[in-house]
Write a structure and sequence with these properties.
The chain is mostly helical and 236 residues long. Helix content is 71%, strand content 0%. It contains 10 helices and no strands. Helix 5 packs antiparallel against helix 6, helix 5 packs parallel to helix 7 and helix 7 runs antiparallel to helix 8. It is elongated, with a radius of gyration of 24 Å. It is found in: Membrane. This is Major facilitator superfamily (MFS) profile domain-containing protein.
Length: 236
């Protein structure tokens, strides 16, 4: 009798079926060694790379004026004006604050892909204005527009990467956001190096930023929409 009681106490409860658990970090292996129900990381990698372009641009625009600031201030007529120089450097962060206030509602309203494309638009226009301007006011306007895109894009990138990445590589892909930001800062400093030797080179530095922003806007046309967002839209 005692034996029967003990056996009932320690009887194993069948574990839940985790083969399709979306939060499972390690894919369930099938008998033939394949991953049962786990999507391939190779399929999601291109989508993640396109998404992280916005983080690259965040880093690039953060550092793009460091090297050329002296040339910019001389050409635009505010050399020695420390207040104006400080505004040129920091006004993009003011725009980023405005952009990040609306990033969540925009991503939920029009979808992740369209939100990325919307964030790329002020980055393209703002960088072009900064490259073409001949006045301090034009530079400040361009930098502020770029900042709004900087605020919109990275929060959406973190959200999108989480939603399209397989659980087995979700943490790795999440780190791409910071890696891309650091790469953007490094590239901006490298591109700004010839500014003291080549006249008007600072304009080229801003034109370079148009390229990844355009690539992201176009690349998102071929990327998958977030499954979570599509599911939520279907429910509503």
């Amino acid at each position: 009798m005692q034996w029967k009681f003990n056996s009932s106490v320690y009887k194993r409860v069948p574990s839940r079926d985790t083969a399709m658990d979306p939060d499972l970090e390690t894919p369930v292996r099938t008998a033939d060694g394949g991953a049962g129900g786990a999507p391939s990381w190779r399929m999601s990698l291109p989508h993640v790379c396109v998404a992280t372009l916005t983080s690259f641009l965040f880093g690039y625009h953060t550092g793009v004026v460091n090297e050329p600031l002296e040339s910019i201030s001389t050409d635009l007529g505010f050399a020695g004006n420390t207040l104006a120089e400080g505004l040129v450097v920091s006004i993009c962060l003011g725009g980023a604050f405005v952009g990040c206030l609306f990033s969540g509602s925009i991503a939920d309203g029009i979808g992740r892909r369209r939100a990325f494309q919307l964030s790329a638009l002020p980055m393209i226009v703002g960088a072009a204005i900064s490259a073409l301007t001949n006045s301090l006011e034009g530079m400040l306007l361009g930098r502020f527009l770029v900042g709004t895109g900087m605020g919109l894009g990275p929060p959406i990138a973190s959200l999108y990467i989480t939603e399209v990445s397989p659980p087995s590589v979700r943490g790795t892909y999440g780190s791409f956001v910071q890696i891309a930001t650091c790469l953007g800062i490094i590239v901006s400093l490298l591109i700004g190096t010839p500014v003291k030797d080549i006249d008007k080179w600072w304009r080229v530095c801003f034109w370079v930023a148009v390229v990844p922003a355009t690539l992201q806007a176009l690349g998102m046309e071929f990327c998958a929409e977030s499954p979570q967002w599509l599911y939520k839209v279907c429910l509503s």
